[in-house]
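Appendix B. Extra example for self-study. Work through it before the problem class; the solution is given directly after the inputs so you can check yourself.
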Amino acid sequence: MPDTPAESQRKPIPERFQVAKATLRFDTFMGYAIQVGGVAIIVAVFGILAFILAQVLPLFGKAEVTERRAVPGETAPSPTATSSPAIGLDEWAELPFSFSGGDAVTFTDLKGERGTFTLPVEIPGEAKISTFAYNPAGNRLEIGTSDGRVGSATISYTAEFTDGIRTIVPTIEVGKFHKVGSERTPVEAIGYGASDSKQLYAALVGGKLHVVTLKEKRGLFGKGKVTKDLELDLSDKLTSPPDRLLVAKDGRGIMAISRKAGSIDYLYLNGGEFTLRQTVHPFADREDTKSIARADFLFGDVSLVTSSTSGALRIFSLFRPEGQSDRIFGQTKAFPDLPSGTTFFVPSLRNKAFLTGTGNTVGLYYATTGAVRWSDDLPFETRSAAIDGKFKTIALADTTGTVHLLNLDDHHPEAGAKAFFGKIWYEGANKPEYTWASTGGSGDFEVKLSMMPLIFGSLKGTIYALLFAIPIALLAAIYTSQFLNWKIKRVIKPTMEIMASLPSVVLGFIGALWLAPVLETKVPSVLLLCLGLPSAAALIGWAWNQLPVEKRCKLKPGYEFLVFVPILIFLAYAFWNLGPVLERICFTVPDPLTGKPISDFRVWWPEVTGTPFEQRNSLVVGFVMGFAVIPIIFTIAEDALSNVPPALIAGSSALGASRWQVVRTVVLPIASAGIFSALMIGFGRAVGETMIMVMATGNTPVMEWNIFNGMRTLAANIAVELPEAPKGSTHFRALFLGALLLFLFTFVLNTLAELLRHRLRERYKLV
Amino acid sequence: MLDPSYIKIQDFSFWYGAKKALHGINMDIPESQITALIGPSGCGKSTLLRNMNRMNDLIDGVRHEGDITLDGTSLYDPTVEVISLRKRVGMVFQKYNPFAKTIYENVVFSLRVAGRNSKKELDETVERSLKGAALWDEVKDRLHESAFSLSGGQMQRLCIARAIANRPQILLMDEPCAALDPIATLKIEELMLKLKEEFTIVIVTHNMQQAMRCSDKTAFFYLGKLIEFNDTKSIFETPKEAQTEEYISGRFS
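Solution. Structure tokens for the complete assembly:
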């Protein structure tokens, strides 16, 4: 049967046609190795993205609150008290106390064997407590007595160790009491504030507002005696009779709250005298009710959290209205309405959060962002609340006296989309604004995490750098590739490439320590150079073309620079030295200090434009970063221009096009895709540039286009602040958010650029 | 009366860097005729052609000795404007090189760069040049399409149309049919014979039949030297030099 030959019968392939086994093996191996490399790069990029996302995402979470335990407490709150009861927590949240105005504070040991026990509040004399106010900052109870005296009791916790077991021992220290007013009538409301050397009690006695200031004599050996300094009756300064008092912690501002009238009188101590600075009507615009349910200071005592009896919740902060010197209160935030006026309030001592609510409703709010971090309807009615110093535990006391302990899991209360991208009216600011100020000097500092100034700074730095770099780099690339003699081009190109490898820290160093001080005094010269040199160059070019060809032909094409460069150098020298002359003519203003005319651009600029002049400014950054970017744009653009097929250049030259016409009509369109890539790579370098930005700018996160002040970029911000940001903190994660923005920024831009480049290439592709 | 020596090449030598490509060429190219330059690859015929409108200026590191004159003026006189020279001496390249523009814009390129933008003049030029290049009938309905939509032969004729749009005095053709199929080649040859009435044509070709069919005079180059220059008929029928005979009879190439 004549069928196909069997396997064994098939003719062997001659050796010279066979491929060596080693070649095949190596081929396969290299195939896999390249695949592994390629996949590894993709994995690495996505890995970085995933890591950054993992750092950033927790910023946008809400607070989680879970029940820990409930502790039965005082069953019958003291009926004599006019104030709502106070509860507080120790540092470890193991020994909460509650106080309802009786003669003792009740402690509950949650960890040890001590159970519930009380410690007495021993007031000197025979009087009872008629009113008290609890200030969680310092664990102080400000106390007013039935016989018209004021004083305080401080609850302090100390940890004692026996056999390695920690026991927390509470103590109550009762301070000295001071008589207020002349009558022995009960104190109805009390407020207290203290600065370094002064203490101030405000007390409501018999419907009158009495103020007592105390002075502490300080000797060489520490604290001295406290003596009464001033005693004033401020009732006649008020607009309506108050029923609650707040004193700011500096001991100078008194808020007299009249709940029924719905007004708060703001009295301020200045030069030994109190004046009524403002009367706030927080709910004057509300239809339903204007009366106030509660008003309390937020941590820091510059913001008032007010609640109307109908449940509106608003924050009023001190700000300085334009054109005025005194700071007054204005509404900065509003929260969603509660079912009715709040009955309890406690600020966090770690941030700008506060816990408030009414009836069964409890909410944790964040003042800066105006966000509701957590809100719930609980099965019990809360009468008072506490937040521990670590912002980890919430204690709520219900009407039966039971203390409910809740776990608070809110790691980033100050974060959120609004905090990063929204305009926020910060405490003390005059209007809503974008601000980055991640760390402050004091514990009650309001953290400001707006990304906007950083995004703005990145754009500003990039734009000023590119404004300087793009014209120079592109023109240089066109000149070098199309006009310059090839012998010189051979030297110039590698030189520029070496320039590209200059470390940016060196450039930043030069910029900050040499260029910035030089430019500071030479702005008019720079101005002359920037305007004069390009126009001079254009003029020389024009004049050159007007020369008769017999004269021109003495220089071979490509060597014209031998004429141009010396003239330009001379002109640059002349312009540089003419700067002071220009300064004298154009930039003379009266010196704000002496009134005499002064010719100094550094004085002129702020006088005329109202914007600051700084030594390390965007101009310096533009120049120095331009230096970093120019070689990159130049090299890539030059390659693109040089790669235009010579046949096309020859074709258009043969049709009588001049050198510039060849460049404009043939070379530039074909090289456009490559030039565009060069610009994008330059842009990417400028956006991500860090060291130059850190060193040569002032690093102030301002949002002004002013060329004579600095900026802070996303990249510089990370470099400057990451070392001081605790791992996992909001600050740390916010810096990663900056990194993510930078990543997205370049990613989106590069994708768009690639699409555009592709279209350009399609349009001008060759046969 | 025609000037028999319109382009005069006098003792012309040319170097690419250190390599000498042309050795003392002497040659008179007559007006209104087709002169063919033939010879094996690398013999210098293209180099000589490209020197007739100074296209070699675009190449780095070249130099020359001797002279080429056009109408009695040296091309290398320092006062000669190269741009103006190239307007007088047009060129068609071996590989068609249309610009990434429309057919219309390709043809009027030489007018545009001269700053002549009158619509009427441009339209007339396009029609005349495309008719001159025997392309008009094929493209008259799609003048504003990309030049890349044409076939290879059409693109080369477009390049010819482009070269004659500004009516140069001389047309240099560097192997214009090298990349074309026989039918397109034939069309270009017919075209050359027609163009001869208006322009002086110098053509470099590898195709012996082409030189024989179209040219009036033929020059044979070998290793950078002009071996023989005579009427085409004489060169192909009674070559004086042995090398010429060997070449045209195909014994070497």
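Self-check: The domain at 64-423 of chain A is CATH 2.130.10.10 (Methylamine Dehydrogenase; Chain H). If your reasoning did not lead you there, revisit section 3.
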